[in-house]
Design brief:
125 residues; 6-stranded mixed beta sheet; 6 strands; 32% helix; alpha+beta; globular; single chain
């Protein structure tokens, strides 16, 4: 299992990646109350006329009232395209009384973790 983490004065965001054969099972958690707010499933594919590029089809499920689906979708897509593997991402990050700036800081930290994971996958291939 790989674990990536970003810390700020207010929160910690953690991303765990576990290999399941060729596939990847990813979780994002952190903030005041980690939970499952959304899940995404990404399946990579190539088009018949353009086999030099990998795409990914992503489906999401979101718990009512949660807004974790965008991050789950973004992470699943990026990791599926890079790894060429099926990827699931569960995501649940909550900050009590979060300001717009804090929400942006969470997204920035999470995107940094995704970039770190993509780099790690790139060096492993």
């Amino acid at each position: 299992m790989l674990t990536f983490e970003k810390r700020t004065p207010r929160f910690i965001i953690r991303m765990n990646i576990e290999a399941m054969g060729r596939d990847l099972c990813v979780s994002f958690s952190g903030g005041d109350t980690p939970h499952i707010g959304a899940v995404a499933l990404a399946v990579p594919y190539t088009e018949k006329h353009r086999t030099d590029k990998t795409y990914a089809s992503v489906s999401t499920l979101t718990v009512t009232g949660h807004r974790d689906d965008g991050l789950a979708r973004e992470a699943a897509h990026a990791l599926a395209v890079k790894s060429g593997s099926t990827v699931t991402v569960s995501c649940g990050i909550h900050l009590d009384d979060a300001t717009a700036d804090e929400i942006e800081a969470v997204l920035e930290a999470a995107r940094s973790l995704i970039a770190d994971a993509v780099k790690k996958i790139d060096t492993a291939q």
